[in-house]
Specification:
Strand content: 5-15%
Number of helices: 7
Shape: globular
Helix content: 55-70%
Length: 180
């Protein structure tokens, strides 16, 4: 007796998935346009998207290794070093030696970097609140749940996930507490 081959689900051919992906992409593009239009209204200094991306990653992964940041950005080390140099010159990012490897550098946001990022996030939330206020409650609730699941799915993508050896061994706050 021969076994029947089970049809496998091909996500690339699923039109519902494709529609959802197109919708998410379209919204991401609208966000890009909205944030760019708001840049002149935001708190000075203006931070280019590439530097803001670095600040967001360093904020999310406090004490991240420079090598890991380079991998997550998919960029060449010299380019990432220049981005960090600029952010350090603004007083937004600090470098410090890695306690378990003399060749590694750990990155953290400074208080000033945290404040700047928070102001920027508040401005963006205000822009979003204006749009969300026009939506019915039921749609906002469904969107909130859907976005939470999308965020979780995105954070599980290998390209966005830290490898165990990349995870910061000690948080910046713990490091600062020890040195105080």
């Amino acid at each position: 007796m021969t076994e029947r081959a089970r049809p496998t689900h091909d996500p690339l051919r699923d039109e519902h998935l494709r529609d959802a992906a197109r919708q998410a992409r379209s919204i991401a593009e609208l966000f890009d346009v909205m944030w760019e239009q708001d840049r002149n209204e935001g708190p000075p200094p203006y931070i280019p998207v590439s530097q803001l991306r670095v600040m967001n990653i360093v904020d999310r992964e406090d004490g991240i290794r420079m090598r890991t940041l380079t991998r997550l950005l998919g960029a060449a080390r010299p380019s990432v070093c220049r981005l960090i140099d600029r952010l350090q010159a603004l007083g937004f990012v600090e470098r410090r030696p890695c306690p378990d490897s003399g060749r590694e550098i750990l990155l953290s946001l400074t208080r000033s970097g945290h404040r700047h990022l928070e102001k920027l996030r508040e401005r963006r939330e205000e822009l979003l609140l204006a749009a969300l206020a026009t939506m019915p409650d039921q749609q906002r609730t469904a969107m909130t749940e859907g976005l939470a699941h999308l965020q979780s799915a995105l954070m599980n993508q290998p390209m966005l996930r830290l490898d165990p050896e990349d995870a910061p061994s000690i948080s910046a706050s713990q490091d600062q507490a020890r040195s105080a």
